[in-house]
Amino acid sequence: MTQLWFPKPRIVCERSIRYYYSDEELNKIRCNTLKIGENCFIERSAHLDHAGGIEIGDNVYINGQCSILTHDMARVVAGLEGLRKPVKIGSRVFVGIKSTILMGITIGDDVIIGCNSVVTKNIPSGSVWAGNPAVYISSLKEYRDKNKKDYA
Question: What domains can you pick out in the chain, each with its CATH number?
Answer without folding.
Answer: 39-151 (2.160.10.10)
